[in-house]
Specification:
The chain is built from six helices and no strands. It is mostly helical and about 100 residues long. The radius of gyration is 13 Å and the shape is globular.
């Protein structure tokens, strides 16, 4: 089973590595910023069309986004960024 929070982390990391803003991704996906933000916070799941568009835009495999490629090795910098992002998301959920 896929963990929507792990997927959200992967999308966030891939987007920031490409130095894309959420608005840039929204244009490609054809969705509003609140809807995209919900993807990165794990409050909303990807549909198949979004998954393939994100994979192409971000230059990562569908398997990587889903966490099924067996390559779960983030760099230390990426791990720190993920932890920072998780703390931020947790603070939002607690509001």
């Amino acid at each position: 089973m896929y963990n929507k929070y792990d997927i959200a982390d992967r999308i966030y990391i891939a987007r920031t590595k490409k130095r894309l803003k959420q608005q840039d991704v929204c244009k490609v996906l054809g969705i509003g910023q609140p809807s995209y933000s919900a993807l990165e916070t794990g409050k909303r799941v990807l549909n198949v069309d979004e998954l393939f568009k994100l994979s192409e835009l971000l230059g990562v495999s569908v398997e990587w986004i889903l966490g099924t490629d067996g390559n779960n090795n983030f760099t230390n910098e990426e791990r720190l960024e993920i932890e920072k992002f998780k703390r931020y998301i947790k603070s939002i959920r607690e509001m």
